[in-house]
Amino acid sequence: MGPYYRSTSQGMGNFFDTFYQHPILMLLLAAGLVATAIFFWSRKRSS
Question: What is the pTM of this model?
Fold first, then answer.
């Protein structure tokens, strides 16, 4: 357990721990954020 656990709740610690155990989730989250940003950026540009 790293120092990031000191100021976080137990639930938030478990959330971060899940990402450390399954790095593919972080890749999926990043890909989803990029896709969402592109979607909103293209919508704003076309209007």
Answer: 0.57
